[in-house]
Amino acid sequence: MCGRYEMFISPENREMNRIIKLIREKYPSSKNMKTGEIFPTNAAPVIASLNAEIAPELFIWGFPNFRSKGVIINARSETAAEKPSFKNSLLQRRCVIPSTGFYEWKKDSTKQKYRFNMPDEENLYMAGLWNEYNGERRYVILTTEANKSMESIHNRMPIVLPKNKVQDWILNSDAALSILKETPPELTAVKVSKDLN
Questions:
Q1: Are 190 and 150 in contact (CB under 8 A)?
Q2: Which residues lie closer than 8 Å to 69 by C-beta, 6 or more apart?
Q3: CA-CA distance, 70 to 85, in Å (whole number)?
Q4: Which distant-in-sequence residues (6+ apart) come within 8 Å of 16 by Cβ?
């Protein structure tokens, strides 16, 4: 499960600043792009290939949930290829969600919030799928079984991509299906102060 993530922009983070700059140039009239802490249904940056070129885009987080209220924000990697909601996207419409970390809450009485990051890296890239509904491009984050760095907090985690696999994930279906079977990299966890929740 991944129900919240962050994209905090600092002057030193050249990659995230480049992504934001390119989106603002592409969508100059769009004022609804969310950075900072990102929630489901926010319009946020993704990296995708719409015309055989990988570029930052502005999509909405969450596929419509036609069975009940709300949106579907995650897709289980183990079953995405079998689910009608995700199958075609997995084969043809993969994206990457750039972030500076994601959040998870410990499943116990404390409900302690943690922020997860790649060790010694300021950015974290998550594998996603996208589709178009009523003229809106929307995305979900793919999740997998938690690895050792996360299993004490939650039993699921996003599929985290090393930066050198971003292009393969987006453009190469065979490589993408192989990535789904890999164990995600180890992450670092930091407790988030209750005052910031």
A1: no
A2: none
A3: 15
A4: 7, 8, 9, 10, 98, 100, 123
* pLDDT score at 104: 94
- Its pTM stands at 0.94
| Count of residues making up the chain | 197
Could you tell me where the DSSP H helices lie in 57-130? Answer: 87-92
| E strand residue ranges, 50-158 | 54-61, 63-64, 71-72, 74-76, 94-99, 101-105, 113-117, 124-133, 136-145, 156-158
Whole-angstrom distance, CA of residue 137 vs CA of residue 92: 14
Nearest to 128 by CA among 117, 139, 116, 144: 139
How much is the pLDDT for 194? 66
CA–CA gap between residue 55 and residue 98 (Å, rounded): 12
- Identify the CA nearest to 119 among candidates 69, 185, 50: 185
Q: What is the number of alpha carbons within 13 Å of residue 74 lying toward its C-beta?
A: 17
The arrangement of strands across the sheet holding 188-191 comes to 36-38, 5-7, 101-105, 113-117, 188-191
Q: List the beta bridge partners of residue 132.
A: 137
How far apart (Å, rounded) are the C-alpha atoms in residues 60 and 34? Answer: 10
Token readout for 104 is: 């998870």
